[in-house]
Amino acid sequence: SAECGPPDGGTPVTFTQVPTGAEVSVSGPVTDRFTTPDGTVELTFDLPGTYRVKVARFPFLDWEGEFVAT
Fold it and tell me: How many helices (H) and strands (E) does the chain have?
């Protein structure tokens, strides 16, 4: 897991070189699911807690990670 700072909605976690069309799933205090239109994903966490993020796009390997907004 990684600390991502205060859940102020203003400090994004940024992923680059994500395959276009990848499905991004976020679960935790707030859940979300969306498809990225380009190779960059920015996530902001408005509530404190542990968030699990999954990025999936066939035929690439899935990536999963955990972030703790304090």
Answer: 0, 7
Sheet bearing 32-35, strands edge to edge: 2-3, 63-69, 49-56, 23-27, 32-35
Q: Which two tokens stand for residue 70?
A: 């304090």
Q: Are residues 16 and 40 in contact, defined by beta-carbon separation less than 8 angstroms?
A: yes
Contact yes or no for 67/6 (Cβ under 8 A) = no
Look at residues 40, 43, 41 and name the one whose alpha carbon lies nearest to residue 68: 43
pLDDT tens digits, 38-62? 999 988 888 889 999 999 999 999 9
- Given its phi and psi angles, is residue 4 left (phi above 0), alpha (psi -120 to 50 degrees) or beta? alpha
